[in-house]
Amino acid sequence: MEVYDTEEQQVEAIKEWWKENGKAVILGAVLGLGGLFGWQYYDKSVISSQEAASEAYNQALDALAAKGTEGISGVQSFIESNKDSEYSVLAALQLAKVQVEANQLDEALAQLEWAKENSKDAALSAVVHYRLARVKAEQGNFDQAIADLAGITDASWTGRVAELRGDILLRKGDQEAAYTAYTEAQQASDASQTLQMKLDDLAK
């Protein structure tokens, strides 16, 4: 199953944003709630735990990249140990990617469902919903896949969502609805270069 560069770039952007801004976000919340005591807690505990989670995440992903499916258990252990961090969601996404590439679709689906339930980041949630839709479509669960796509409300995803919906509808045999979806996708700012070819094929 193809992994789009735009998705990978978005995941990397979210990871980098969290690394650069996560501390400030937590700091604002802590200062607002706890004053000086909150700052002391933040300074001594939150920073160190955030840095530890970041380091552990990088180590788990390095092992996964080096070992492939043999590194799955290490990433799963990281997820279990860092459930309250967005790093666990990022790790689940990367783990699901490896499982999809190994054709372990049920396992990948379980990771993505967990990520959907545990992500608190709207941008990351869009990535999770999109990948869930792709895995479910690959399994033939077309209606469920379309339902997951409906969970993406970010306007920057309009083209990608409409195009994938068209792909799914075409696989269902509904060429008219697929053509409509592709036309919608073509009008979006994130339209892909393959859309015209898909529309041409349907128009024949």
List keywords for this structure.
mainly alpha; single chain; elongated; 204 residues; 9 helices
- Report the count of strand segments: 0
SSE order, as H and E?
HHHHHHHHH
Strand residue content: under 5%
Tally of helical runs: 9
Can you lay out the helices and strands and say which pair or pack?
Layout: H1 5-67, H2 72-81, H3 86-101, H4 105-118, H5 122-138, H6 142-149, H7 158-172, H8 175-186, H9 195-203
Helix pairs in contact: 1-2, 1-3, 2-3, 3-4, 4-5, 5-6, 6-7, 7-8, 8-9
Brief overview:
This protein has 204 residues and is mainly α. The protein is built from nine helices and no strands.
What would you say this structure looks like, in words?
- With 204 residues, this protein is mainly α.
- Helices cover 80% and strands 0% of the residues.
- The chain has helices at 5-67, 72-81, 86-101, 105-118, 122-138, 142-149, 158-172, 175-186, 195-203.
- The longest helix has 63 residues, at 5-67.
- The model is unreliable at 35-39 (pLDDT under 50).
